[in-house]
Amino acid sequence: MEIPWLDRDCSVPARLGVGPTRLFTDARRAHWLSWILSIVVALGLIASMTLLAAPTASLVASFYLDNIADAVEREINPLGPPGRPLPLPASLSVGLRFAALSLLVNLAVIALTLFTGVGFVAFFVLNGYLLGREYFELAAMRHLPFPQAVELRRQRSFDVFIAGMIVAVFVAVPLLNLFTPLFATAFMTRMMKRLP
Description:
Layout: H1 12-16, H2 20-29, H3 31-61, H4 65-76, H5 88-115, H6 119-140, H7 146-155, H8 157-171, H9 180-193
Helix pairs in contact: 3-5, 4-9, 5-6, 6-7, 6-8, 6-9, 8-9
């Protein structure tokens, strides 16, 4: 038995005007919709690259940070005592902790951007705090035990925060943010070595 309004070429939802055929036909007629969607997707990709590049680059670079810090220390004071490289488990632990914290901070920035509109300021403040804290502690742990490195960071919290804000500006520039671990490690090592 054949039903006249239902044939093989078209489904019931499409005949009612709610199927994919209708959507694609309307999208072709309204090319502006696809143009707007392209812009939204492009902006989303740029935002996600900006927000996720730092944690990813930091995780990968955590294996090389001691080499960078060592080179900077030799340049600043070739006759001074060299820092101790972090053991691999400690280095991996610090790298994973930093990547996880950075991901959480940047998710908070996205939420603040969407719901309060203070995302731009939140990006620099939160990342400035986090980047300053983590990279300063990494530089300090080459010369001090972990509890003393944390205490030194707390004593110099304003200086570390301002230095972290400079690193956050570096993070905000796409493609340049891939070099953040190199810049931040060298910058914080110099800051640590120049402390009285």
